[in-house]
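To whoever picks this up:

The parser on our side crashed when reading a file containing two proteins. I've narrowed it down to the boundary between the first structure block and the second sequence. Both blocks are reproduced below exactly, byte for byte. First block:
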Amino acid sequence: MKFTRFAKITNVAGVMALCALPSFGWSQKGHDTVAFIAETHLTPATKAAVDSLLDGKSIVYWSNWLDNASHTPEYAYSKTWHYKNIDADQTFRSAPLLPSGDIVRAINEQVVLLADTNIDDSRRALALKIVTHLLGDIHQPMHLGHASDRGGNSWTVKYFKQPTNLHTLWDSRLVESGHKWSYTEWQQQIDRATPAEVEVILTDAYPEHWAEETYEICKQVYAATPQDTNVSYDYIAQWTPTVEQQFLRGGLRLADILNTVFDPDYKGHWSPLKK
């Protein structure tokens, strides 16, 4: 089955089925923002390589593709790649490994495939789409959430008195409430780090460490959002800077990976592929 970026839903049953699916990552806006930040930091050589692999489409076009694709038989193997569950009594290191893989393992393996010029370009293009999406997911705090509540999907909260759950709150509600921006405006407003600040974000170039970093935020989110909390303006004001921070980290780190893979003159930080 071939998936374009957008799925067309033609009947009410289709809408209801889609709404029942578990949340997988930042909303479309979040993934587009991460990808667009990355795109603005690609070198000319990297841009040309990406353009060639994706047949002229951008990484923004494909940024949220995996959320739909993971629900199809062809790509069902990737369902567990969007997250790593860590319960409250566990650490990142002690949490059990899933046989089908998790977000850290998937990023590491897909980047290796992306960098392998001996395999078919269609497989490398698939790896590029996957890596683009997962660099957003690994910076979404609830993707390091507890297995016991399905990464916050069964952690009930209220959003301005309307029932929702903690995962959905962080996927989309918080993003849309913090700023009424397009993904290009998000990039324009938050992608303003100094070279020294960028260096701090990029220096620790291991997905394992990014996941641990996000998990520390996740623990703070759980503590700040007891079940049945009514989220309102004060919560949005408190946590929107964290959303901004995570979007920027994801975008800059994605750009660093792609530049390291595709541009031989780029002095990258991506540790597994350091020259």
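<<boundary where parser fails>>
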Amino acid sequence: MKLNLPNQLAEADVFVQNPFVIFEFHNFMDDSDYDTLVNEMKSFNEYDSIDPRGMEYGMGGKMAISYNRSNLEQIKLPQFKKLVTELTSRSFFEWFKKTHFPYIKKRHPISILVSKPRNIIIRIVRRISRILHLPLGFYYMEVQTSVIKKGDSIPPHTDEAKKRLSLILYLSERELPEKIRTNWGTIFYGLKDGGQEWRETKKANNPSSYNETYLTNKNETTEFLNNYEQIYVAKFRPNVCAGFIKNDISWHSVDEIKFGDDRKVLVINVREEW
């Protein structure tokens, strides 16, 4: 499967650099491959976790399951398996390093790609590198299927400290009303003029990583929106892959799903362990 990836991140169809890097790749893959994938994923219904953040709002959470190089054999759908194989390959990792590293300020200088970060050998090497203060970062890629059901939402958050990149591939029908494309989109936020920056909620346990911040209730969301405003909405369009580079202020959310059925996407994450 061939992915249509730019040679430089600034060549993306949409590229926003401030207050943090946001981008969109249009025609992420050949249309025939994309349509096959969307039709195939209609039958996918295997999830092993629920993101609790929506539940704290009195709503259901995001349902998800993740795949990486270590569990490819569990994927039964052929087109989906091809995509996960490509997105967790060394060639994709090398593309990520070339195009994204210039924008990632906090990272370890030496990058090592691993298929499973909790492998016992990797754990030993990581522990030795920490003891000896070696500048090693252990990277792994995963593809997560994610579903948000009607009536649910994901409140503003900056993402986990270990994330370096998130790509969101929308699994969209060709014909969708514009109100659904907007409602199901990913919202990105920036500080208003005169607004106060939100306090971090979880400091990273490594100086070479960003903090992890998230809102936990509706009162916090009201306070947040008094200080932050929408700077971009990546609408739910077919064959579009929206993404951002995680940092301390990479605020984003998904509004309550008000129209249509379930919002289904694939999330491609690159994480750094230390």
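After patching the parser it read the second block fine. The chain has six helices and 13 strands. The chain has one domain: 20-257.
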